[in-house]
Amino acid sequence: STMEETDREAVATAVQRVAGMLQRPDQLDKVEQYRRREARKKASVEARLKVQFNKPECCQVMSITLNLTGNEELRKNHLHITFREVAGNHLIYIESKLCCKIFKSGLSHHQTQSVCFFFFFAFLSVPEIVRETQDLIERGELLQAHRKLMDLECSRDNLMYEQYRMDSKNTHDMNLIHTYFGDMQKLSEELAKQLWMVVQRSLVTVRRDPTLLVSVVRIIEREEKIDRRMLDRKKQTGFIPPGRPKKWKEKMFNILERTVSTRIEGTQADTRESDKMWLVRHLEIIRKYVLDDLLVAKTLLDQCFPTHYDIFNKLLNMYHQALSTRMQELAAEDLEANEIVSLLTWVLNTYKSTEMMGNSELSPEVDVNSLNPLISQNVVDQLLSKYMSTLTSNIIGWLRKALETDKKDWIKETEPEADQDGYYQTTLPAIVFQMFEQNLQVAAQINEDLKTKVLLLCLQQMNSFLTRYKDEAQLYKEEHLKNRQYPQCYVQYMIAVINNCQTFKESIISLKRKYLKIEMEDTLSSSHTSMDATLDIIAKEGCSSLLDEVFMDLEPHLNELMTKKWLMGSNAVGTICVTVEDYFNDFAKIKKPYKKTMTIEAHRRVVVEYIRAIMLKRISFKNAEERKEGAERMIKEAEQFRFLFKKLAAGSGEDTEGLCDIIEAIAEVIKLTDPSLLYLEVSTLVSKYPDIRDDHIAALLTVRGDASRDMKQTIIETLDQGPSQPNPNYVPIFKEITVPTLTVPKLLK
């Protein structure tokens, strides 16, 4: 029988073993020593067998094991079997290999292996190995712990496999084995937990303790091999042990992915409420962390993993994906204009720059040209659109505020500041263009296209702003006219407004030169022309309002001209000249192009007002003596004006001669002593100044005081046929001068 055969084999093996111990004569002296050693071994094994065999689950699993043998005789007697009966006193000498022969009869190789392994390993050692493995895990000796865990799993899996082969439907027995090895599952989970902790901190671990990381990778590789083996066996037999495949490599990559995401998300330390620069800080921390991590991954981490893991590229993709997710989250927030710029600058420029992915130390593994965009073009366009709309409202707001602030200065009791050349100015152009400049520099960080759009926006808003500026300057003038004592420094601030027009012009040109490509010049030409025109109007109206100031002060003195008082020696023109010169001391603070215009215009208006005084017919000379005296006074006063305006126009290259010549030409008509030559003198005047109308000639002849109505009529009618020979530079002056018509009482005569 099988029992007898087993006994015989056991005895034979024992004999062989004893023979092996007694090869040489000197070994006979040690027989007693050998006997005591083997007795101790035997006692130890028996004690352990007794403990294990008395456990109920052990008896149940033993029952399963014997059932697996398929041997009828064993199945009948299995409840009465003890190990002593099976192996007798020789059991202690049976080697693992020999053990397989105990159930040799009728068993396959796998079955006998499972049974023997289980007897001598599982029954006797499972709890002890579990304890040892637990200790190893706690001590951080992960490789050794895993080796023991693999042994435990191997014995359980083989036993289950034999059970499956014998009776695949017997779930009760299968569960029994599973339960017996229950602690082993917890060990696997505990070990995995330790591995994932190392994986989570892999970028730190690789610097401090690379060996630990290598051990973790080796464990994962072992598990991958076992997974493959088990899956192959499943294909062939349909059996796979519980918990397989473990997929620890896949889990490791999942853990790495979560770690990377958490690392990116965790860099936001502040909110807008706590720090206006929260986003800039957040993005800078991300940049620093990602670059540091990837450099470590490339130089150190890559060496701890097998090449087929492609660990650096996998990590690179994880970081890219995590960054893409984070940037999309940020893009979806309600960002302010400056935050949109910070985000887009980072996403479109910083990310691929040498400060980050384009860092030379990451090359050639990282090719910035092959990196996908962090956010889609659609999202970029939405952000840019939102930025432009926010910026538009901001610029409108800033410009309005800047103008309001400037207007407050206009009513100050102190003069405006002057630039380095002594010209009055306010801070408005500097504030406006500094704001434009800042926004253009910001836009330039993102791309050329946005920079151009922002420049167009700035100039478009500037256009509207200048119209408001013009209206405000007009209101300023109107308010002043209600009470000329207020504001105290009206003239000086109006000069500053005029000068600002020149500064605005120069700043627009400078801004275009700096930020606009030459090929885009045409798109702005019409808006530029429009702005220049508005600025010229503001400056012209400003100059005009200042001259109004002058002539309001001159009015009482102009009213004295061509009166009896004037003829008797009034100093009206002397006062006029002093007043004009006094005003022009302030007007010296007007910038050159406008100051030249002012001087020409003042000169012209003085002459116009003088001629107007003649045409008002306030005096009619009684005789040749009065005519001579009046004419000479007119010539003398023309010379005073000429001298004054030559002085005021010094260095401007302006021709001031012609205007005063008109006064002298009129004086010659008045001075003429021979009435028969009057037609000739008048016709010379008309040919020089063809805009003289009939009513002007009639008024002039009235002032002369010696021409009859018929003579006036004849001269006027004859003149109509005469040719005109005006000076080509002559600017019509008489058309501005109206002659008063007859009063009602004269009509009644």
UniProtKB/TrEMBL annotation:
The answer on whether this UniProt entry bears the keyword Cytoplasm reads yes
Tell me one GO molecular function of this protein: SNARE binding
Subunit structure and binding partners: The exocyst complex is composed of EXOC1, EXOC2, EXOC3, EXOC4, EXOC5, EXOC6, EXOC7 and EXOC8. Interacts with EXOC3L1. Interacts with BIRC6/bruce. Interacts with MYRIP. Interacts with SLC6A9.
GO BP, sorted A to Z: exocyst localization; exocytosis; protein transport
Could you name the Gene Ontology cellular component terms for this entry? exocyst; Golgi apparatus; growth cone; membrane; midbody; perinuclear region of cytoplasm
Identification of the protein by name? Exocyst complex component 3
Chain's role: Component of the exocyst complex involved in the docking of exocytic vesicles with fusion sites on the plasma membrane.
The listed locations are: Cell projection, Growth cone; Cytoplasm, Perinuclear region; Golgi apparatus; Midbody
Q: Which UniProt keywords apply?
A: Acetylation, Cell projection, Cytoplasm, Exocytosis, Golgi apparatus, Protein transport, Transport
The family classification in the record reads: Belongs to the SEC6 family.
Entry annotated with the keyword Acetylation: yes
Q: Name one Pfam family in it.
A: Sec6
Task: Supply the InterPro entries for this chain.
Answer: EXOC3/Sec6 (IPR010326), EXOC3/Sec6_C (IPR042532)
